[in-house]
Amino acid sequence: MKKTLFTLLALLFTLTTLAQKEKIKITDEKQNNRLLLFASNTSEEDLDVTLTVSGTGFRQSTRKPRAYRVPAASKVPMLSLVIERGKKPVYSYELDVTSELSRRAIRKPATPIKIDPDKPILIYITENCTTCDSIVSRLDSSYYNYRKLVLAEKPEVKKTIVGAFKNTVTPYEEISNPIISLGGKLYSEIDSYEALLVALKEEE
């Protein structure tokens, strides 16, 4: 029984670690004789990230790798590799990612990035919309990726949307908000960015 429990816990730990690692993407940029490595956090929580690099064609600091704070929806420079003359750098890496934040984590300037929400956001702009501008403006300044479609410019799509609200309490002609698709589910009563966030976090 103890062995089975230990195996189960180990599996859960492994799955959790893998899920966390998927929140961090490593990219590189070449600048003169250096290869700069960046960590992008595509989640909505701050993470501490330790990056260990190995490979050929470059030199790096011999100091023990340290954790860097990578805030939610941001990109942070992690390492600078010195490219050896006449060689092409080839590297692999290992990540240690944790949401248990340490005071000792190194903090570097972070660049905001756009991330995909848990549910894809598609904004249908209606003709009588009185709240569209404010919601779209807030989305533009948020870290969420989203799509926008003006129904007046897409008659076939509009026809489908009008049909979807034909027998509802509020027919299409009376809707004064954007029609918002969150993961495929349509909402017509969302009248603010705050209400959009609440709907975005709702469990199905």
Automatic annotation (TrEMBL):
Keyword Signal: yes
Keywords assigned: Signal
Signal sequence region: 1-19
Source organism of the structure: Patiriisocius hiemis
UniProt name for this protein: Glutaredoxin domain-containing protein
